[in-house]
Specification:
2 copies of one chain form a homodimer.
Chain A (H helix, E strand, L loop, with lengths): L1 E2 L7 E2 L1 H20 L3 E2 L5 E3 H5 L9 E5 H8 L10 E3 L4 H10 L8 E10 L11 E10 L7 H15 L6 E7 H10 L5 H8 L2 H15 L4 H11 L2 E2 L2 H9 L6 H20 L4 E4 L12 E7 L9 E11 L4 E10 H10 L3 E3 L7 E3 L7 H13 L4 E3 L6 H11 L3 E4 L7 E5 L5 E4 L15 E3 L2
Parallel strand pairs in A: 3-7, 9-11, 16-17, 16-18
Antiparallel strand pairs in A: 1-2, 4-6, 5-6, 7-8, 8-14, 9-12, 10-11, 12-13, 13-14, 15-21, 18-19, 19-20
Helix pairs in contact in A: 1-5, 1-12, 5-11, 6-11, 7-8, 8-9, 10-11
Chain lengths: 449, 449
């Protein structure tokens, strides 16, 4: 299903695009039901802006005008145009947008943003160089209440659990819990602890211990951190009990544990079984300041997280004001690519068209056009046969595309008829009133198996 | 309304984005009603592909990975990665997509494509370096009937005349008419004639005559071409009569005139007054092979054409097969930018939200969340107040965003109430059944003045 004549740049055939579009429409619909306003930012940022978040700067695609490139290669003086690159996520551009438009935005500002992003990675299995992300964030001016850290993952839970994919689990952790436990056992270099724990799946507990030892973390401290990483549950009581079992305490740990358990409790009431606290999650804890989120699809754990995010105490700052934020980002291309390649779903047809109007004779094309215009005025997506060929050929035109109905204008004095080409049933019909069944009006996506 | 902290890269505030999104949704809706399937192509093409259409290659943005750039600048050997650039239109990528996927597509293939494109032009008034285009094309395998040259501009006419903008006129011409007249008067260098005529608005008839003389076109020949360029009408009869008055003939001219008048006749029946033949139009005639189209908005002629296109006998070819096509492209950003800057329209609010649910007390937030969940389950976009502040402040939160209704959960034993903050009317309401008026369900765009 994926066409990639340039490695890492996926394209879909029309039926694949119907699936992707349905996913995008669904996400937008859920985001808007929750009051998020849609924005788009330009695809490019200044290199300065992109490099402000050091970690991924190596993956940036830098732009140069072809004309400037040719001048440079012919030995001319290098251009002094400001260097721009393609954005590699939607968070950096959003932070810039908030600063630039702060006086015109209403805070707390809830926005969704669905756009392509680019990363100049060496192409490899499942890594795209161009892909679509769908982000929601809420950003406050100076302050942002904790309850948004509960609400935003629940918006994503609603969006993802209503897609035709296997069950999803949103795994949550909290920076304050991990930092609180580190401080409780006397680990000063929290970042080193996080880096080590992040490798747990790859190198195992023994490997992590050795790695932590290099940063001066003792075996005893490492044992507590590894015990912490074993803690996972959707029950606030169990989380509290198991953290208590680690035998460490402190104000920061208590604060984080309160937040984590609040999140679990509310999620458990509203969407039982979806949100799970997992204290092994370390990725992102180095830049998020409160809750962090990752999302796995049951049976597709190899995909990695399809929806991640967290809380920043300073999403953006202009020196005077600070804008805390919390948000999550769905990796739409990664998810859709899997939905199409397994496949988990299929589109009921390849075109929006519900009805093909046959043409009896090229001189009578205007009659078919009139039928089509009437259908469209009533919201029925409609096509007219490209040629007045034999009816069998016109029916095959519909069949190949999955168009369910073919309309035959009647000979003069005779009524029109419409044929359901799936059942072969053909009945007289009036073009002023005929309606296809609601489920045939637009292509749908169906779960397979 | 336009924010452009990088010159040529427009961004909209949330209410501007509502207008843009409404325009995009409308275009998509009309295209789908006419049976066009949506596709997207990657943003990048190989430089080879982009340069195959020489004319605009100077405007291409070339990509380079930041890592590769740094290596190059530190004196390392230049990378041998294949050079890629951002697409500058949607036609070149579509032609490539058709060739690559020919075996999986059903011809004639009708597709729409709504995406950003980039041109590295020096920024100037009204020229964007990043902008959105909305294209429709139909492409055949080997052949493509003429009737599509009539239908496609009528799809665009339907799409554009139902937007809240002043009346639009689609100006049409036909390569065969112009070439037929050139040949009829003995002009051999048709391209030179087209280049000259294209400057008519800028340099006037005298200037054009002088320019044509440089290509060996005589004063008498030039006079006929200039007389041709004066011909404009929506009446097929008038077009025929005035072309006859030029005193030239020939089979190609007759064929082209037949096509042009067919188009006018059908357009005149279906959408009177929208499509006008204008034989002055020369732009695009050098690469289109049949009908050409441009579109002007009344009172906004300075915008230039907001929707252009034409017929190609060879949209794409793989050496063995040739794919003729006809299509048009709407310059969405140019149009939306004008709609917002005049302004021609406004969004009825800045957010999707129809209802804000007030919070009485932070301890009672869950009650407000429950009301919101019920509303959303019935398709009502809904937000919950970010803080349990005084009701006046919560109402101001709604008012600033244009949210029309605020819901107040009742004290225990008391009914809930809902207030229309535009009228001040507050009534008892049941969260299981309350509905806002249909016109308040989603933000709309309204014509101004």
């Amino acid at each position: 299903m994926a066409r990639t004549s340039l490695s890492g740049f996926p394209e879909w055939l029309p039926d694949g695009r119907i699936v992707e579009q349905a996913v995008l429409d669904h996400l937008r619909r859920v985001f808007e039901l929750h009051g998020f306003a849609g924005i788009e930012t330009r695809a490019v940022e200044t290199l300065e802006q992109l490099e402000s978040k050091g970690e991924t700067s190596k993956e940036v695609y830098v732009l140069e005008r072809l004309q400037a490139l040719k001048e440079r290669e012919s030995g001319a003086r290098p251009s002094h145009e400001r260097r721009m690159g393609l954005h590699f996520d939607l968070t950096v551009p959003f932070a810039r947008y908030v600063i630039e438009n702060a006086n015109d935005l209403d805070f707390p500002f809830k926005r969704y943003q669905i756009q392509k992003v680019w990363r100049g990675e060496r192409p490899q299995e499942g890594r795209f160089r161009e892909f679509t992300q769908a982000d929601i964030d809420v950003v406050g001016n100076g302050e942002l209440p904790f309850h948004f850290e509960v609400e935003l993952p629940l918006v994503m839970a609603e969006a993802l659990t209503t897609l035709p994919i296997p069950p999803v689990h949103i795994l949550v952790n909290n920076r304050k819990v991990v930092q609180g436990i580190c401080e409780g056992v006397g680990v000063v270099d929290v970042e080193a602890a996080l880096r080590g724990l992040d490798k747990l799946d790859k190198i195992g507990p023994q490997g992590v211990s050795e790695e932590l030892a290099e940063s001066g973390i003792t075996g005893e401290q490492a044992a507590t951190l590894l015990a912490m990483a074993e803690i996972a549950s959707d029950s606030p009581a169990e989380i509290r009990a198991r953290v208590a079992g680690l035998g460490v305490g402190g104000a920061l740990l208590e604060e984080g544990l309160g937040e984590l358990c609040d999140l679990l409790a509310t999620a458990g009431e509203r969407m039982p079984g979806v949100v799970i606290a997992d204290l092994r999650i370390a990725r992102g804890l180095d830049y998020y300041t409160g809750s962090v989120y990752e999302t796995v699809v049951e049976g597709h754990e190899d995909l990695g997280s399809v929806c991640s995010g967290g809380r920043y105490d300073s999403l953006a700052t202009d020196g005077k004001r600070t804008y805390p934020g919390v948000g999550l980002s769905v990796g739409v291309s990664r998810l859709v690519s899997r939905m199409l390649s397994v496949p988990l779903v299929r589109a009921t047809r390849k075109v929006p068209t519900a009805l093909l109007v046959a043409v009896i004779d090229e001189d009578e094309r205007h009659r078919s056009d009139e039928v089509a215009a009437r259908m469209r005025s009533r919201g029925i997506a409609c096509d007219v046969s490209p040629a007045a060929s034999k009816f069998g050929k016109q029916i095959r035109h519909a069949d190949r595309r999955g168009i369910p109905f073919v309309w035959f204008p009647g000979a003069p004095g005779e009524p029109d008829t419409v044929k359901d080409i799936r059942t072969g049933e053909q009945v007289e019909a009036d073009s002023l009133t005929w309606q296809p069944p609601a489920e045939d009006l637009a292509p749908r996506i169906e779960a397979i198996g």
